[in-house]
Design goal:
alpha+beta, 2 domains, 3-stranded antiparallel β-sheet, two-stranded antiparallel sheet, 9 strands
Length: 320
C-alpha cells in the first residue's frame, strides 16, 4: 500500500493455467465437510449461549423486541458487530461520507479467526469498548435503524454456512443466541425464521454479501491445510481482502491505475459501471479475490496474457 492509501500492484498475480488446474485438483482431493458460523448475532459481554439447533426457514421461535421491554437497547452496549461490505456502503451513505472515512471513524480492525482474514468491527464507546454503540440515542434508540448492520438485523438469530464435500452447493442455516439480559425470548410472539428474515430485510444483505461470505467459508476450509494450495495467504493478500471489503475508492484506483484492465478481460459495459457504481465494483472485487486466492474461474485473463502464462509454464516444464 502506498502512503496515499492507493494499492500498489498486487504481488499475488494470476496463476498460470497448469498451476490453476493443479490447485483445483488439489482442492478436490482435500475437500472436506466444512461448517462455520458467519455471524453469531450481536454478542454482549456475557457471551450468551448458542442454542445448538439448526433452524430451517419454516422453523418457529419466540422473540420480540420493542420499546417497552425491560432490556431495551441493552444489546447495543459492548456488542461485537462485524460489518459486511454492504453494511459499510449503506452506513457511510447514511452518514453522508465515503466508506474509507466511515471505517476510520467508526470501526476497528478485527480478525475472523475461522478464516484468518481481517474484518472491520463496529466500535463501541467507552474506554474499555463496553459502552453504547456510537449510533445509539438514549431515548430514541438506533439512529441508523433503516441502515443498521446485518448482524443487528439478524438478532437474535445467528447465520451459519455448511459445505458438504459430496454437494456442490453451500447451505446456509440459522441458530438462536440467548444472552442472559435479553427478555425478548420471553415474549409471546411466535414467528418462523423466514418471516423474521423478511421483516428484518436481510435477504438483500445475504445476496449482496454472498461472494464475500464464500471467500470466508472457503478460506476456513483451507485453513486446516495451511491455506490455499497449502500456503497461508500473504500479508498483502489479507490487506487486499480488507481493502476490497472496506474501501471501494482505493479498490477503484487499483482497477484503473494499475495493469488490472490489461490483465483481465472485463466487458466494456462493466468497466463503465465500476467507474461510479460501488456495488458493481465490489462484486468485481469478490470475483477477483476468488480467482487470486483459490484459482477459481470467476474472472478471465485476456487472451494475450493467457498465452504468455501458457508459454511461461511450458518453459518452466522444459516443453517446446
Amino acid at each position: 500500500m502506498t502512503g496515499d492509501n492507493r494499492p500498489d500492484e498486487f504481488e499475488d498475480g494470476p496463476a498460470a493455467p497448469d498451476e490453476a488446474q493443479a490447485g483445483r485438483e488439489q482442492e478436490a482431493r482435500h475437500e472436506r465437510d466444512t461448517e462455520a458460523e458467519i455471524f453469531e448475532s450481536v454478542r454482549g459481554a456475557d457471551g450468551g449461549p448458542v442454542v445448538p439447533v439448526r433452524l430451517k426457514g419454516a422453523d418457529p421461535f419466540n422473540f420480540s423486541c420493542h420499546r417497552g421491554i425491560s432490556c431495551w437497547n441493552q444489546c447495543c452496549h459492548g456488542a461485537d458487530v462485524t460489518l459486511t461490505p454492504l453494511d459499510i456502503l449503506r452506513l457511510s451513505r447514511n452518514q453522508n461520507i465515503r466508506p474509507a472515512e466511515f471505517v476510520a471513524r467508526y470501526t476497528a480492525p478485527g480478525i475472523w479467526e475461522t478464516a484468518g482474514l481481517p474484518v472491520p468491527k463496529l466500535k463501541m464507546t467507552g474506554e474499555d469498548g463496553k459502552g453504547a454503540c456510537s449510533f445509539l440515542h438514549q431515548e430514541n434508540g438506533c439512529t441508523v435503524y433503516a441502515d443498521r448492520p446485518m448482524t443487528c438485523r439478524y438478532y437474535p438469530l445467528g447465520l451459519g454456512a455448511a459445505k458438504m464435500k459430496d454437494s456442490p452447493e453451500k447451505m446456509n442455516f440459522h441458530f438462536l443466541v440467548k444472552e442472559s439480559f435479553c427478555k425478548g425470548h420471553d415474549e409471546s410472539k411466535t414467528q418462523t425464521v423466514d418471516a423474521f428474515r423478511a421483516e428484518q430485510g436481510v435477504a438483500v444483505y445475504d445476496d449482496f454479501n454472498q461472494g464475500w461470505i464464500d471467500i470466508l467459508m472457503k478460506m476456513a476450509s483451507w485453513k486446516t491445510l495451511g491455506g490455499p494450495q497449502g500456503k497461508d495467504v500473504s500479508i498483502q493478500g489479507k490487506k487486499m481482502f480488507y481493502l476490497v471489503s472496506t474501501d471501494p475508492d482505493a479498490f477503484r484506483a487499483f482497477v484503473f491505475k494499475t495493469r488490472f484492465l490489461e490483465t483481465y478481460l472485463i466487458e466494456p459495459e462493466a468497466i463503465e459501471r465500476v467507474k461510479s457504481d460501488d456495488e458493481t465494483l465490489l462484486q468485481l472485487g469478490f470475483d477477483w479475490l476468488k480467482n487470486v486466492f483459490f484459482n477459481e474461474p470467476t474472472i478471465a485473463l485476456r487472451p494475450e496474457v493467457l498465452q504468455q502464462a501458457v508459454a511461461a509454464t511450458r518453459e518452466r516444464m522444459g516443453g517446446s
